[in-house]
Amino acid sequence: MSGAVRFGRIFASSLKRRRPRPRDKWHLDEVFICIRGKLHYLWRAIDQKDHVLDILVQERWNANAGKRFFKRRLANLWYRPKRFVTDGLSSYEVAHRVILPEVRHRAGPFLNNRAENLRRPTHRREREMQWLKPPRQAQRFLSVHATIYGHFRPRRHLMDATRYHQTLAKAFQIWQQETCVQTAT
């Protein structure tokens, strides 16, 4: 395993530990990605503060894939969402009935825009790389990329300039603490 992959996972997991507990409303989304010329599906869960909770790359887009994503996301968690929002894919409905029947599910074409907009960094990165590698490698890369990308991208549209700069300064301070990187002054 290369150093970038190993340290990227370490840094991403330490950033995840520092994040506050996810909010009670989750947005779930799936997007097509091309890996070696074959379509795969990137399943994502984010909370209402746009923090990426989990990413899963799978070859299928059916009910079993939806259940696998739910089980993976909820493994080792002592809390559950109160509601989740999807774009209406039937795989989510099956997983909802089987795994989380007590959670409220809302589905609709425009309700899930929060998750839909978070595709951009993934697609931009995919275009720059020209293609993604095997599914396992894509899974590792995209999980790390989403965590680190989100750490340095506060929700600018909700802040004034002073708060935005304070938030970015705090993000870089946390990054320095976790990576032991010294900046040149």
Could you describe the 3D structure shown?
The chain is α/β, with parallel strands linked by helices and about 180 residues long. It has a single domain (about 5-180), classed as 2-Layer Sandwich (Nucleotidyltransferase, domain 5), CATH 3.30.420. The protein has helices at about 5-20, 65-75, 90-100, 115, 120-130, 135-150, 160-180; strands at about 25-35, 40-45, 50-60, 85, 105. A 5-stranded mixed β-sheet has the order 3-2-1-4-5, sandwiched between helices. A hairpin with a 2-residue loop joins strand 1 (about 25-35) and strand 2. Helix 2 (about 65-75) packs across helix 3. The longest helix is centred in the last third of the chain and has 19 residues, at about 160-180. The radius of gyration is 17 Å and the shape is globular. The relative contact order is 0.16. The mean pLDDT is about 75.
Q: Main traits of this protein?
A:
about 180 residues, alpha/beta, five-stranded mixed β-sheet, about 50% helix, globular
Write the layout of secondary structure elements.
Blueprint: H1 3-18, E1 25-35, E2 38-47, E3 52-58, H2 63-74, E4 83-86, H3 90-99, E5 104-107, H4 113-117, H5 119-129, H6 135-151, H7 161-179
Parallel strand pairs: 1-4, 4-5
Antiparallel strand pairs: 1-2, 2-3
Helix pairs in contact: 1-6, 2-3
